[in-house]
Amino acid sequence: MRYFLLGPLRIEGPEAVPAGARLRSLLAFLLLNAGRTVPAGRLVDALYGDEPPAGATNALQSQVSRLRRTLAIEHGPAGYRLAADPDDVDVLRFERLARDGARAREAGDAGRAALLLREALGLWRGPALVDVADAPFAAAQSARLEELRAAAVEERAEAELALGTDPAELLGWLREAVAAHPLRERLRGQLMRALRRAGRPAEALAEYERARELLAGELGTDPSPELSAVHLSILRGEQSPPPPSSRLPAQLTSFVGRDDELTALIALLGASRLVTLIGTGGTGKTRLALEAAARLAGEVCFVDLTSATGAVSAVRTALGLRDTGPLTGSGTRTRTGTGTGTGTETDADTHTHTHTHTGPSSGDAEAALVAALQDRNLLLVLDNCEQIIEEAALLAHRLLSRCPGLRILATSREALGITGESLRPLGSLDTESAVRLFTDRATAVRQDFTPGGPNSPLLHRICTDLDGLPLAIELAAARLRQLPLSEIASRLDDRFGLLSRGDRTKPARHRTLRAVVEWSWSLLSEREREFAAQLTVFAGGATAEAAALVCGAGPDADDLLASLCDKSLVEAGQGRYRMLETIRAYAAEQLPLSKRELTARAHTAYFLDLAETADPELRSSGQLRWLERLSTEHANLRAALVRSVGVAGSADGADHPRALRLIAALSSFWWLRGLRGDVAPVAADMLRALDGRVPEGFEEEYVLCVLAAGAGGAAPGADLARAGRIVAQRDRAFRQPFTAFLWAISAGPSAAAERPELTGDDPWSQALARAGAGHLHLFHSRVEEASRDLSAALSAFRELGERWGTATTLTGLAAVLATQGNRETALARTGEALALFREIGVWEDIADLHVQRAELLEAMDDLAGAQQEREWARTAARRAGVIR
Question: By the 8 A CB rule, do 786 and 818 touch?
């Protein structure tokens, strides 16, 4: 959650601001000290002043107790502590940003200082602590914060003036600040300097006169020497120092969504002389580099290498350097001489030889460039290095070695790969930033566009489907000129056709989404292209092992993956490799049909093997580890299942059995992770494909398929009846232990209890059978029998180390204890079960358990606790998708 005190008191999160004035004051004071323990005595003083009433300590305890129902407040011997990240409290975030900004300005980093201070001042939404102004602590804290705010304004003004920010951008808020603090001479001097820079010296002198009169009338003093020095400088007609020269292209659109990356990049540039922004095409590397360069103090030069034929000549051109030597207008150097010298010679016979050169040699040109940069403090922005990556890397290394005042910020789809390089990968925008970017660009082409209401889910879907890729989002927003938002969302399956109209002024490879991806693709070797195309078979990313086996790359897989990561075609993280969906869509088009079918079969075989290996582990002490692994691979497992169902009837005759095997192996995983609703439509497709035919030897798998489809209400009646007949005719235990449980859920525990021969003799199945018998006894009010069977089942599940069975049995025992009137112990049992269910992540069971706990608390007359449990139950049910 986030908390706001710089303006009206507000909480951003599920909890509401407390209604009572005293509670709001307590919350505000705890927020001012978030993360720190506050002694009870200090809280009493804050709430009641110097003369607290009798019973103030007890009243404080009661107020804290009310707050603790919704907020994380810890209590210890030393006092009370609100467990919140200080950066989630706007006051504390403001103080940190203002402090860091002032330090950056003092260190000479005006760009970073301006960035930090802008963010700090942007947190203010009105007077601080306005909703608790009557609290005894509020006046002093408000005054302190207003002083910090004014100091931050002064620090920002100093940083902006050092940067050479357009004075037109400064004058408005500087005038407001001076009006609010007319006696602050530093602010007045900064306003005067901004007016002078804007070419308005008369107004600057008038400001000085106003300051002089105010100081004399209010304080009986004269202006400070610092303010008088500014006044004298203007009287003499002296100009303020010009801002550092900057050869950066002006931007025509606002900068949206990369504030954190911008702050980090500026900090990195302060610590490293070579920083490379790397990322796939369309992530906004160039724009971020330009924004960072514009905020740094000193001289800056931007070099676009998009269509450059040579790195040296491109840098020389950007710097405005001319070739040295007596060149002709055509760039041909002519030398004449007499005798046997070199060059052009005129001898005794007046015979003339002419040698021509197209400019200086590369060595001469580079030497001249080094000479021009050797004594300059300059930031060189080398944009789009990937097309001449080796030459750009070599030049960067040589220039940095010989020019101590030089820093380089490079953008590229792969690293330069030289010593001393600091890499800053740039990925996709998060959904919130992507939506802001789309909205900003959309309102530029459609002023009536509104992001809220019915547009909100469409907008989020578009931004998610486009991977948060800035270029794709901007192109999609531009299509609002011709298409409604709903049609843009519906046509994203053909994203390359949809996003085919870009800025005519951009280079050809930046105008459309396809062109951007094609450019990256063209930089790959033939083997890299084949491997990248094969990787598209993975729906949810892949481990290196899976990529090697499925794509048939063998020992080359690691090198190929590393190379694709280096070239920003693949992203790596937490041991997995994935493609942005936009790149995946393009790469899939490049895979020949024969190769695609071969790779798809290998993918399905790999994940069927994984599912069947994992299934028995889900009933062991390794349950959590295997649940996590299957969850990570859920998209791939689902894709393998969909493919097996969808290609039924092809030359591969094992498709239907393979699909049924996948359903059987994954049934317990789907149940434990609450994914039944997600896969029910696929299981229904499987039933339609089978059309009443049950493959021989796969009867149990067919039953599980019917049960999976039934979880979404999608199992036809004929299939349900057929499954019932299969179970009725079965005379031996199920191969898949979870089948008995799922059938019991469908047919009812009594029906299942009548068929003990269906239960396996493995320890997990036997424990589950005892638990089922215990629940059945409880249903029929046979409490002692229920307690006996459930206790035996609990011991068995604990011995196995299996959490779901343990938790399910604990809920039954809690019901037994409640029936016996032992509600305190019952509540403890449900607490233990809840912890286990949370570890597994089975949200439907969590929701049911919160309801059970609410009923226990109501029976114990704890109505507030019961209400909280029901709220948690609703939250869990929403997360499970049971309610909206």
Answer: no
Maximum separation of any 2 CA atoms in the chain, in Å:
129
**Cβ–Cβ under 8 Å, residues 215 and 286:** no
The number of beta carbons lying within 10 Å of the beta carbon of residue 365 is 19
Handedness of CA 372, 373, 377, 379 (dihedral sign): positive
- Measured CA to CA in angstroms, residue 49 lies from 45, 131, 137 at distances of 5, 18, 8
Q: Which two tokens stand for residue 542?
A: 């892949």
Q: Regarding predicted confidence, which is higher, 567 or 787?
A: 787
- 645: Cα separation from own chain's centroid: 34
**Cα(547)–Cα(543) distance, rounded to whole angstroms?**
6
Q: Tokens 């016979």 — which residue?
A: 349
Q: How many CB atoms lie within 10 A of CB 874?
A: 15
Q: Where are the alpha helices (DSSP H) in 536-622?
A: 544-550, 557-566, 581-589, 593-617
The Cα–Cα gap between 199 and 45 comes to 54
| CB 121 within 8 Å of CB 156 | yes
Give burial (CB, 10 Å; 0-12/13-18/19+) of 66: middle
Beta strands in 633-720 (DSSP E): none
Q: For the chain, how many residues are written? A: 884
Q: In the structure encoding, which two tokens stand for residue 254, read together? A: 């606002």
The pLDDT confidence band at residue 243, using thresholds 50, 70 and 90, is low
Q: pTM here?
A: 0.61
Q: 271 and 104 in contact (C-beta within 8 Å)?
A: no
* Cβ contact 129:5 at 8 Å: yes
Separation between Cα atoms, residue 840 and residue 807, nearest integer Å: 10
End-to-end alpha-carbon separation of the chain, Å?
21
Q: How far apart are CA 121 and CA 146, in angstroms?
A: 11
**Cβ–Cβ under 8 Å, residues 392 and 416:** yes
For 130-189, what is each residue's pLDDT tens digit?
989 989 999 999 999 999 999 999 999 988 888 778 788 889 999 999 999 999 999 999
pLDDT at 575 over 60: yes
Could you report the per-residue pLDDT of 291-325, keeping only the tens digit for each?
Answer: 888 888 778 888 888 767 788 888 887 777 754 44
Give the mean pLDDT of 470-489. Answer: 75
Least confident of 494-498, 532-536, 599-603, 774-778: 494-498
Q: CB burial class (10 A; 0-12, 13-18, 19+) of residue 707? A: buried
User: Which stretch of DSSP H or E encloses residue 419?
Assistant: none
User: Which pLDDT score, from 0 to 100, does residue 174 have?
Assistant: 94
Report pLDDT digits (tens) over 781-814: 898 999 999 999 999 999 999 999 999 999 999 9
Residue 402 corresponds to which amino acid?
Answer: R
3-class state of residue 4 by DSSP = strand
Confidence band (pLDDT; 50, 70, 90) for 328? very low
d(CA 204, CA 156): 19
Rounded to whole angstroms, the Cα distance separating 880 from 884 reads: 9
Pseudo-torsion of CA 797, 802, 807, 812, nearest 10°? -30
The tokens describing 417, both together, are 């790969």
Closest CA to 379 of 412, 416, 402, 406: 406
From CA 275, how far away is CA 411, in angstroms rounded? 9
